Amino acid sequence: MIRRPPRSTLFPYTTLFRSKQLVEASKPKLNTFWKYAQVELTPPTPADIPKIQEGLANLVRSARTGRWKQLTVREAWLNTLIGSEIVFCFFIGECIGKFSLVGYNV
Fold it and tell me: Which distant-in-sequence residues (6+ apart) come within 8 Å of 8 by Cβ?
């Protein structure tokens, strides 16, 4: 009698990822992701630099004139969310870069 080798403990997962149904179900979502990723995740080009400078100048002008006081609650909330996202991404990047939650090894 020939003994079969033991099954891998990863058998259900590998079968799941080979599933044709899973691949077919994920194609529309991946296409949508790819469409938006090509636009939103591209780095700025040299042609975008004047627009970036104009946006920063508008931000400084808004801070000087007090125009920020006339924001709606929705606009203020969105600005807060975007700012906190940038800060959190910075801190996560710092934690990843130093391989620790606390301090650098100096």
Answer: 14
The pLDDT value recorded for residue 4 is: 64
What kind and span of H or E run contains 16?
A: helix 11-18
CA–chain centroid gap for 76, Å, is 21
Element (H, E) at 22: helix 20-40
pLDDT of residue 97: 81
- Flag residues of the chain having pLDDT under 50: none
**Three-class DSSP category at 65:** helix
Q: Is the pTM of this model over 0.90?
A: no
Amino acid at the residue 61: R
Structure tokens at 83: 């700012």
